[in-house]
Amino acid sequence: MQTWWLTALGLAAGLCTSLSFVPQVLKAWREGDTEAISKRMYIASLIAYGLWIVHGLMIASVPVMLFNVVNVVLAGLILVLKLRGLKSAGVR
């Protein structure tokens, strides 16, 4: 398999993974309801994405590094919203 196909596959997979966070971010941001969000799961996810970034650096894979940085940002935002408890603060 040619290298550009592997990169394209990685970019497509990373895009799908990262886009899967967007509805959760929007719902938590707009509604402020983070009750059903697992804090432990997002902490574990952030650790995993950090490890994937290190792995991506070690193998010099742009898709692995790029989309795991995006995932850290999105999962981190969800975790911050969870910890802040926007609903209990009255912010919607």
UniProtKB/TrEMBL annotation:
Major localization listed first in the record, in broad terms: membrane
Gene Ontology MF terms: sugar transmembrane transporter activity
Ranges in coiled-coil conformation: none
Gene3D superfamilies the record matches: 1.20.1280.290
Keywords: Membrane, Transmembrane, Transmembrane helix
Membrane topology (UniProt): Multi-pass membrane protein
GO cellular component, one term: membrane
Subcellular location(s) per record: Membrane
Transmembrane segments: 6-29, 41-59, 65-83
Keyword check for Membrane: yes
Keyword Transmembrane helix carried by entry: yes
Pfam family, one: PQ-loop
Protein name as it appears in the record: SemiSWEET transporter
